[in-house]
Design goal:
Its EC number is 1.14.13.149. The longest helix is centred in the middle third of the chain and has 31 residues. It is built from 12 helices and 2 strands, in the order αααααααααββααα. Strand 1 and strand 2 form a beta hairpin. The radius of gyration is 22 Å and the shape is globular. Helix content is about 65%, strand content about 0%. The protein has a two-stranded antiparallel ribbon with strand order 1-2. It has a single domain, classed as Ferritin (Up-down Bundle), CATH 1.20.1260.10. By secondary structure, the chain is mostly helical. The relative contact order is 0.10. Helix 2 packs antiparallel against helix 3, helix 5 runs antiparallel to helix 6 and helix 5 packs parallel to helix 7. The chain binds benzoyl coenzyme A. Benzoyl coenzyme A binds next to helix 2, helix 5 and helix 8.
Length: about 325
C-alpha cells in the first residue's frame, strides 16, 4: 500500500474505464471465470492491475498492523505480573512480528518491495489498524487486547484463509492458528482476575473492557454503505464477509463470553433481538474512528515515532547483513 492513489480520472490501467486490448480483455475474462469458480490466483498468474493494487494495499496494511501491534503489548513485557504471564506475552509479541514478516513476504510476491512498503509506513502514507493507536494503561489491557482485539482479528481473518489470492490465503492459515492461542491466553488471564482477583483487580478489568470495547468493534472498518473498497473486494473474493456482518458475528460471539467473565460491555443498547437472531447495538462513533485513522488518535504519533526509531536504530544491522551477504557471494581470493 499504500501510497494514496492519485486520481487518474478512470484512465488507470486495469480500472473499469481503461481502454484494453483484445488480448487483455480475454485474460480478464479468464481471470473473472476463475474467481467465479472459487479458484485461486497465484503470484505468477495474470491479474488486473487494480486487483494487484488492492491486494498490496490490504496485505501491507495488515502487515503494518501486526508490527505496530507489537508496541502496545511490548510495553508490558517488563511489567508482567508473573514469569508465566511474561513468557506468554513474549511469545505472543514475537508471533505478531512473525505475522508481519509472512505478510510482507506475501505483499512482495505482488511486485512491491519491502523497502517501498516500509517507506510508506514510515512516511505516514500507509494505514495500519486503528486499534493500535490506543494506550495500554494497566495489566488488564493486555488480557483485554487478547480477548477482544485478537478475537476481532480472528473473526476478520478466518474468512481471509479463503481469499482468492493464494499466497495471502496460505499465510493466513498459520496466522489464524496463532491468533487463536492469543485470544485464549487473554481470556484466561481475565478469567483468573475476575474469579480469584481482588475488587481492585476486577475493577481494573472492567475499566479496560470499557476502554477497548468500542475501538474493537471499529476494527472491522466503516459500515458497508460507507466502505468504498468492499464491493470490488467482495467481487474478487479478497473479502468473503462484509465489514458489518463480521462486526455482528463478533458481537454475537462476545456477549456470552462477557457474561461468563462477569464484565459488562459498555453499550446500554446492547440486547438480543429474537426477530433478527442477533444482538442489537448502540451507535458507533464513526467520527472518532476517522479521526484515529486520519492520524489524530491518542497514540498515533508515538506509535509511528517508535517504528521510525526502530528502523533508524537498525540501520547498522541491515548494513552488516548486506556486507556479510556480499562476502559470501564473492569468490575466495587465492592466498599469496
Ligand atoms: N483501521 O473500504 P474499507 C491484529 C480503512 S492485526 C485503519 O472498508 P477495506 C493484531 C481502509 O484501509 C489487524 N484503517 O476498506 C496485530 C480504507 O482506506 P484506504 C489488522 C481502516 O480494505 C497485533 C478505508 O478505511 N487486520 O489483529 O475493504 C496484535 C475504507 O475502508 C480500518 C487486517 O488488516 C481500520 N480498522 O476493509 C494483535 C485484516 N478499517 O485504503 C492483533 C485485513 C478500514 O481506501 N484487512 N480502514 O485509504 C481487512 O480485512 C480490510 O482491509 C478491512 C478494511 C476490513 C480492515
Amino acid at each position: 500500500m499504500y501510497t494514496q492513489a492519485m486520481d487518474t480520472m478512470g484512465r488507470e490501467e486495469g480500472s473499469p474505464k481503461a481502454v484494453r486490448s483484445a488480448e487483455e480483455a480475454q485474460l480478464e475474462a479468464r481471470f473473472d471465470a476463475r474467481i467465479d469458480d472459487g479458484g485461486f490466483i497465484e503470484a505468477k498468474d495474470w491479474m488486473p492491475a487494480h486487483y494487484r493494487k488492492t491486494l498490496v494495499r490490504q496485505i501491507s496494511q495488515h502487515a503494518h498492523s501486526e508490527i505496530v501491534g507489537m508496541l502496545p503489548e511490548g510495553n508490558w513485557i517488563t511489567r508482567a505480573p508473573t514469569l508465566k504471564r511474561k513468557a506468554i506475552l513474549m511469545a505472543k509479541v514475537q508471533d505478531e512480528g512473525g505475522h508481519g514478516l509472512y505478510l510482507y513476504a506475501a505483499a512482495e510476491t505482488l511486485g512491491t518491495s519491502r523497502d517501498q512498503l516500509l517507506d510508506a509506513l514510515h512516511t505516514g502514507k500507509a494505514k495500519y489498524s486503528s486499534i493500535f493507536n490506543y494506550p495500554t494503561l494497566t495489566w488488564a489491557d493486555i488480557g483485554v487486547i487478547g480477548w477482544l482485539v485478537d478475537g476481532a482479528a480472528i473473526m476478520n481473518q478466518v474468512p481471509i484463509c479463503r481469499c482468492s489470492y493464494a499466497p495471502y490465503a496460505r499465510a493466513m492459515v498459520r496466522i489464524c492458528r496463532e491468533e487463536s492461542f492469543h485470544q485464549r491466553q487473554g481470556y484466561d488471564s481475565l478469567l483468573v482476575m475476575m474469579q480469584n482477583g481482588t475488587d481492585a483487580q476486577k475493577a481494573m478489568v472492567q475499566d479496560a473492557v470499557n476502554r477497548w470495547w468500542w475501538p474493537s468493534i471499529m476494527m472491522f472498518g466503516p459500515p458497508d454503505d460507507q466502505s468504498p473498497n468492499s464491493a470490488q473486494s467482495m467481487r474478487w473474493g479478497i473479502k468473503r464477509i462484509s465489514n458489518d456482518d463480521l462486526r455482528q458475528k463478533f458481537i454475537d460471539a462476545t456477549v456470552p463470553q462477557a457474561e461468563v467473565l462477569g464484565v459488562t460491555l459498555p453499550d446500554p443498547d446492547l440486547q438480543w433481538n429474537a426477530e433478527r437472531g442477533h444482538h442489537d447495538h448502540g451507535p458507533i462513533d464513526w467520527a472518532e474512528f476517522w479521526r484515529v485513522v486520519g492520524g489524530d488518535g491518542p497514540c498515533n504519533r508515538e506509535r509511528l515515532g517508535a517504528r521510525v526509531k526502530a528502523w533508524d536504530d537498525g540501520a547498522w544491522v541491515r548494513e552488516a547483513a548486506l556486507a556479510h551477504a556480499r562476502k559470501q557471494t564473492q569468490p575466495l581470493k587465492a592466498s599469496a
